[in-house]
Structures are given as C-alpha cells and as structure tokens.
Amino acid sequence: MVTTRDLSVQLGPLRLANPITLASGTCGYGTELASFLDLSRLGGLFTKGLTSQPREGNAPERIAETASGMINRIGLQNVGVEAFRADKLPALAGTSVPVIANIAGATLDEYAFLAECLDGAKGLSGLELNVSCPNVDHGGLEFGTEPRVLERLVREVRERTALPLVVKLTPNVTDIGELARAAEAGGADVLSAINTVTALAVRPRFEGGKLVAERIAGGLSGPAIKPVALRAVASVRKACALPIIGIGGISCLEDVLEFLAVGASAVQIGTATFIEPGLAMRLVAELEAWMAERGVARLADVLPEEV
What we know:
Shape: globular
Helix content: 25-40%
Order of helices and strands: EEEEEEHEHEHHEHEEEHEHEHH
Strand content: 15-25%
C-alpha cells in the first residue's frame, strides 16, 4: 500500500515540491496571503511584476468584472526592484517557498538591469520575464509578439543572470509556438502560458441623443480564457522541448488536471485567488488525495510523455 505521495515536478533547473504555484499579479509579494494559506505548502510563488523604479500604475478605474472573468489595467503598480530586494524578499525568508520574481521593462536595457540587480539575491529561485502584459503603454506586448525581438531580449537577460529563466508568453499572437521557439533559442529554461487576453469592457450610456461607450481596455483573465490557455499550452508543447507552466482560468482540481494532461508540468493560480485566497493550498491537498485514490506514488509517473 502506498503511504507517501511525491508531488514534485522538475522544471528545467527548477524543482518544485508540487505543481501548484501562485500567479504573478494576483498574490502581491506573497506575504499578503500568508494569513489565508501556508506558503511553504505551495510549489512556488511568482511575485507581482517588478520594474526598475516604483510605479503607481494606471489611474482608476482599473478593474472590470465580466462574464466568467475580469479585465484589469493595473499597469504594473509595484514598489520597484530595490525595495523588493531590500524589503519584500527578506519577508519571505521563513516560508521556504521557491520565489520567482516577475520582471518587466520598457526597454531591453531595463530588463538587463533588472536581471543583474536580482542575480544572486538571497531567497530568489528564478526570474519570470513579463513580455506579454497588455495593460501598459510601453514594453509588454512590444517584446512578446515578434520572435526575433523576443529571442534577443531573452538572450540579453540570459547573459546577465545565472538564475533559472521563465518566459511568460502572450496568447495575443497568430502562432504562439513560434514565440516559444524564439524564447528557447534565446536561452529560456521554462515557459509560462498564458498571460491575459486583450479585451474591452464597455458600459454604454445614452447622452445627447447618442450612445456613448465608457471603456476599460486591458487583459482578460479568469475561467473565460481557460480554453484559450489550454490550446496555447498544447501548441507550445508541440513546438519546443521546454517545460511549461500553465496559466488561465484555473479554479478547481479538474482544471489543474486538464493543463497537466495537455503538456504543462505545473500551473499558476491567478484570478481565482481573489475569490478564494486559500485555493492554491486546497488544490495541493486535493491533488494528493486524487493520487492516493488511484494508488499513484509519483506525480511525474502519470504526466504524459507525448500529447
């Protein structure tokens, strides 16, 4: 009889105790959720996107609820890389959870600076390149939609850090597999897919005899994008050999299993955390129970070799 379960997964140079992680932009810097879950039980934590200088982000209104999801245009509000390294990262020292810093820049030089600044930071397990954020005016999608530009960016960052490098891909392209290959060629260790989908929320008003649209344009997340994310993960898996972290609309164990079945090795829990802050820890327990019910000792044994 199997009495212990091995939920660990290997993501290139990154080894996680289990495949359940928290997505960047939805869990702050981790400590914000410490009263709702035991961070040490998670596979990993992807911090709020960091820039070289502090950012206030976009002016309100910055969030709009939609059918089965939400649109956000936060605009990468963050404390800046220096404050993160001095204050936020040390606050996670006692949790033992692998911390991967999400970084975003308006230029290649800013990405390179961020990588150099964080290289060797105590308690940091890796970097996630945010090259696919649709709610900022500069950077973001500009780097994530052109293969040659993406490959150059990844290579520039790779040369400046020994940390494991995750590249977060955008779904807002014709061929996500082409971008995956570009990131691989540039030196990425892992891919995460997907970031939010470009979208628009409209509140129509009748003024002066005409319809007027109050608009909130930004990135759509939540259950509405799960089919898009699943297709993207399956496409990336066929396009290159790098391990994949699946993201998009995950809110229950069945969602996790769907992503694992199409080629992801781990997942990030994002928008659903706003509804249930402790969801990620519950999913770890449910995955372990699922394995126990089926007599599975090692999660790695049931992950598909081909999809």
